Amino acid sequence: MRSLLEPTRRSKTAPARPVAVRDLGEVLRVLDADPVASCMIAARVQEFGLDSRTGAGELWSRGGPADSLCFSGANLVPLRGDQQALRAFADRAGRWPRVCSSVVGRQELALPLWEMLLPTWGPARELRADQPLLALARPAAARADGGVRRVRPDEIDRYLTAAIAMFIEEVGIDPRTGDGGRGYRRRIKSLIESGRAWARFEDGEVIYKAEIGALSRRTGQIQGVWVHPEFRGAGVGTAGTAAVANAVVATGRTASLYVNDYNRVARRAYSRVGFRQIATFATVLVD
């Protein structure tokens, strides 16, 4: 008997198509029903709407957003759908040269979608199949570091040094590859200018950093958490993340992040802050 996930023949079911601009209200309701897991996409939709000409990616559906929904942009993010919907998303994603650098989302959606894409996209560079999705809707349980603050625009060079170190350590590639780091610098500059990059400085050097990488109306997703190697094991990460989480919660939002299951040190730190698991993500790194 053939497995439901076996990527052989293309489906003859209805194809996935871009969601119409007129369906914005329904899309927002769908995203609002799962505000933590959908934070990355909700933030984009709330800011740019559904017009794909903005360059912020596009949403696909097979029938309607309430039944199936998938975001396609820098990442491919399945948000809702059954087996046939996932097949339709895989079919559409496989029609053109791949532009997505990863497949990420709820484990029960991201992993089956990746299995269907594998014959077209080829092997993953890395598969992170078990990533607890954590949330905190109240002030942190751990002491917050009062020295963690928003990064100023004139501090970008010092902050960027830490951000690059974090990226290489976490993702395994140098974000300066290809364009000399211009794209990554623009991303960091944008986060700093919007007040979403946080750090603690010691003698002019970053010893703790984190960003609120996605900010929707209901959730702030913390990303890029990093502690300078010389300061690890001293509670810097716990206190720093408590400070950033408190800043998110103070706006009336839920603070969120996801972490690799095998990163026991980080998981213990986040648990001390008060984060609790509400779902499981998976990330397939392609580039």
From TrEMBL:
It holds the Pfam family DUF4081. Gene3D superfamilies: 3.40.630.30. Residues 155-287 form the N-acetyltransferase domain. InterPro entries: Acyl_CoA_acyltransferase, DUF4081, GCN5-like_dom, GNAT_dom, UCP21603_acetyltransf. It comes from Nocardia fluminea. This is N-acetyltransferase domain-containing protein. GO terms for molecular function: acyltransferase activity, transferring groups other than amino-acyl groups. It comes from the Bacteria.
